[in-house]
UniProtKB/TrEMBL annotation:
Residues 2-234 form the Nucleotidyl transferase domain. This is Glucose-1-phosphate thymidylyltransferase. InterPro entries: Mannose-1P_guanyltransferase, NTP_transferase_dom, Nucleotide-diphossugar_trans. One of its GO terms (molecular function) is transferase activity. Pfam families: NTP_transferase (PF00483).
Length: 330
């Protein structure tokens, strides 16, 4: 089985951070979003990955080569963003006849990877949500199989949202249905949707089961990213290496502090993730994500997202600051 991870999106909802960093490389709870996905699938037994890249794709390539030397990887360029269906179709030659597992590059979920892989059926990850209108939706039949999937329905007939995890056993069938979308120019909200191709498969006899994810962490915008960071830190307990010595500083767990940080006369936590080589003095930071090589001096941060190589001096409350930024409060 090969894993396909589309990471070509521009991440507009996470700007200004995604002006300089792909969304999949945004840090959360001490790791990148992409690391959570790849590590989880690799631990479940998948060793070959196809990354669909586009915007800032060279950063994805550099990161994968550095962070995952133990996997086999391929890169496919998506120069035009025409939707998830278009992205997956670009992988046809690399996939061949192998089964595939598609995990969208901004989706962190908790589920049993091995159980999903070993299932004799194609499977779609689902989670019950209060308002499914902004998601793909799965409708279940009485026989326990999925009988219909639809992308962002105006009037949903189910509250089972598709979470962006797809195991496909009949890959040739899937690529044939994708080809049908292109030939007939069938689009949803102006894009070729993988959900539409899967629905064509179901209508033509393919069998899909649903597997429920235990937790689904939304990393698509600042507020939900910070909420997911807090939840994941609670689950992991955080990580502060033994080599750290923080003079005059109180650490309120859970927090994650990367190597080579200097923190002095500050209060850090709870639910704070700090990147490597960051310097913090005379500051209070809680419920926030701070990038690498960043300097904070005399600031009070709450529910803030600070990029890498940024500098903030003065007093503040809640910030959303991208990379390579300098702010001084008078």
């Amino acid at each position: 089985m090969k894993a396909i991870i589309p990471v070509a999106g521009a991440g507009a909802k996470l700007r200004p951070h995604t002006y300089t960093q792909p969304k999949a490389l945004i840090p959360i709870a001490g790791k990148t979003i992409l690391s959570f996905i790849v590590d989880q699938l690799h631990e479940g037994g998948i060793t070959e990955f196809i990354f669909i890249i586009g915007y800032l794709g060279e950063k994805i390539q550099d990161y994968v080569k550095f962070a995952f030397p133990h996997i086999t990887y391929h890169f496919v360029q998506q120069t035009e963003r025409w939707g998830t269906g278009h992205a997956i179709e670009l992988t046809r030659e690399i996939v061949g006849d192998d089964e595939v597992f598609v995990a969208l590059g901004d989706t962190i979920c908790e589920y049993d990877v091995k159980e999903m892989i070993n299932s004799p059926y194609s499977m779609l990850g689902v989670k019950k949500v209060d308002d499914p209108r902004n998601f793909g939706v799965a409708e279940m039949g009485l026989d326990g199989f999925i009988e219909h999937v639809v992308e962002k329905p105006t009037i949903p007939k189910s509250n089972l949202a598709l979470v962006g995890l797809y195991k496909i056993k009949e890959t040739a069938f899937m690529y044939g249905c994708l080809k049908h979308l292109f030939e007939e120019n069938i689009k949803t909200q102006g894009e070729y949707s993988l959900t539409d191709a899967l629905d064509f498969m179901i209508k033509r006899g393919a069998k899909f089961k649903a597997f429920k994810v235990k937790n689904w962490f939304d990393c698509g915008k600042k507020d939900t990213l910070l909420e997911s960071n807090a939840t994941l830190l609670k689950k992991s307990g955080g990580n502060v290496t033994d080599s750290h010595t923080f003079k005059g500083t109180i650490i309120i767990p859970p927090v994650s502090i990367a190597p080579n940080c200097s923190i002095k006369d500050s209060i850090i936590g709870p639910h704070v993730a700090i990147g490597a080589n960051t310097k913090i003095e005379q500051s209070i930071v809680r419920e926030s994500i701070i990038g690498s090589y960043t300097n904070l001096f005399e600031v009070v941060l709450d529910n803030s997202l600070i990029g890498s190589d940024a500098s903030v001096k003065g007093l503040s409350r809640s910030l959303n600051i991208g990379d390579n930024t300098e702010i001084e409060f008078g």
